[in-house]
Amino acid sequence: MNLNRVMPAQGKDRILPENRPQNTLDRVDVVIVGAGVIGLACAWRAAQAGMAVRVIERSEPGSGASGVAAGMLAPVGEATWGEEELLDAALASHGMWAEFAGELAEAGRAETSLLRNGALHVALDADEAGELRRRFDLMSSLGLEAEWLTGRECRSLEPGLGPSVFAGVHAPHESGVDPAAIVSALRRACESEGVEIVTGMPVTGALRDGDAIRGVVTEDGAAHPADSTILAAGAWSGSAPWLPAAALPPVRPVKGQILTLRGAAADPAAGRIVVSERVYLVPRSDGRLIAGATVEEMGFDTRVTAGGVFELLREAYRALPDVAELELERVVAGLRPGTPDNAPLVGAGALDGLVLATGHFRNGILLAPLTAQGIVALLQGEALPPALGVADPARFEKVTT
Amino acid sequence: MNLNRVMPAQGKDRILPENRPQNTLDRVDVVIVGAGVIGLACAWRAAQAGMAVRVIERSEPGSGASGVAAGMLAPVGEATWGEEELLDAALASHGMWAEFAGELAEAGRAETSLLRNGALHVALDADEAGELRRRFDLMSSLGLEAEWLTGRECRSLEPGLGPSVFAGVHAPHESGVDPAAIVSALRRACESEGVEIVTGMPVTGALRDGDAIRGVVTEDGAAHPADSTILAAGAWSGSAPWLPAAALPPVRPVKGQILTLRGAAADPAAGRIVVSERVYLVPRSDGRLIAGATVEEMGFDTRVTAGGVFELLREAYRALPDVAELELERVVAGLRPGTPDNAPLVGAGALDGLVLATGHFRNGILLAPLTAQGIVALLQGEALPPALGVADPARFEKVTT
User: Fold this and answer.
1) Min CA distance, A312 vs chain B (Å)?
2) For chain A, which terminal residue's Cβ has fewer other Cβ atoms within 10 angstroms, N or C?
3) Which of B116, B110, B109 has the alpha carbon at shortest distance from B94?
4) Helix or strand or coil: residue A256?
């Protein structure tokens, strides 16, 4: 129940009494609700394009899914039947990441930790090998660069793999980043482009002009007038209290639990991303190994559970037995923004002035460069990149109205 | 390497230059090094007997093994071959706990959370059942109160038990306490008896009078003269830098990792302590369930490891499948004070004036009342309780000299 929900307004700039602003800040071109990797990437690119941008974050930047994500940039291994269009988007954004990371490292004066060692997708028994083989055939039919390896060849590439590894697919161009480093770099890059970032401040209302939205109102009573309002609130996008129900996108929280293991940087448990049917293991250059992630339909529940941690540890151990010796440094649960078809929502929202950049589910880090490019194109009145066709919010119009 | 180790001194009150005190505090009857459950219990009882007592703790009270222990008071289940004398001590101290807890709750103005629901020791397969049956026969031959149950009878008593539970031993008089609550209560009880508790202060030297010890010197340069000096430093007792090597007891750190799970107090995963061959599960009245503990020879290593947590979760899940749904609230590793024969060291040390109250390994909480009683008897020149015969430090004299 969202008691503060703004009802559809009819008059000009009509807002509910409890959300009436006490002061009005300078108008900006774009106000972005949410300072995760998506919101910050959009803000940075929009500011670079000359727009005045303000980002409003209810907590700290990266405190949602961005702060929990493993940062795997592995579109090839994600290839699955019926999601070929999503794969196009993933591949397009993956192709943008090296330049994005390089530019961001410079603008954000930070190490963005892009690790480009490829990924090894492994099958831990004959059944899993059959499934992986069918996915490999799909990858091949889609023209993706990937190589089938025997168990022995897998262990030769990645000597820490367990004896049960039966076969694998090597995707040499897959990579990983540290999302926490990306958030920090994006924040600095935004600030150096003049983006205002307001933190610890929930959005509680909207500035309405008939059916249009012309900015937001924050909990402190400040009005933030803007030509465009971007909803980039991750898992909370589907229940934003400042949007009328009919304008809420079909985004739900999908819980993920994830572990940070720590070993010696000089002797990593794995040299590249290792993915099995039930766990992925993403090495960082400092000796950390991220093991993720559960996928749970639990609503807004971020409890770490014995069962979730057990499953991750068991599967990590099956793939890479040496993880047993690693320090368990952090266990955390986050909420991904899920959508009915697992594809994001990037484009015009259901109200004039409302723009959606949300619903990235398991692919928010990967899709950030493409999403930001698409949002800037939209804000400039240009066509979205074709690869974002899968993300058109209009596909759910019947659902949301 | 203990560079600050005090070498055996020859002259009266001779101390090494780096440990020369800058000021001398009031002489007390007893100075106790270590404010764990053992040190505090000894302090409380000694003060009650009219002695002036000062406890010196390098960190916070209960920051060693006491802060990690599950608080299981289950001597029957611990019965094993060759440790019958230790069992005598455990049973004697177990018999003292109800009164100890009651008196402490009053003196410490605190809930000591003594849970008296008994314990169920379960076998998860036929092999484990054979082993448990042999231990049950031992319990019976020792006259311990325990009952053999079939798997079905176990599940009738404890419906959350997994389907693989094959048989069990019900020990109805076993119980558990929350060691954190005990530490808090002991601290208040001590203070109300006039015990001085000095925290955050390492002991760096000893006040020597020939072969005798007459108190300690702390890092701040203060001398603490005392007739008796009690070493109650837990896992650190074997490497106390202020004792000559020949007076160090054979105590080594034995690492234990332990989990705190949290469920609803109204719907506990177990109504009593559940113990399998590889894990014990101790319920608290507030819905927590403590799952412990690994036993690892790793020196002074308190890292939480993936393998340790995995093993505890796996075994907890085998015994009580519902734990999968519980929140994993805390994971921590501590260091038990281990000895060559697993029995404690309670009695006169190798120097005149030195008293040992250490080496309690996995039984520190259980043995606290008996240990404190024995220490007070010793300080008053009386004989130790016969049940503490197993703890006589003299049994290692050949080892320590």
Assistant:
1) 9
2) N
3) B116
4) strand
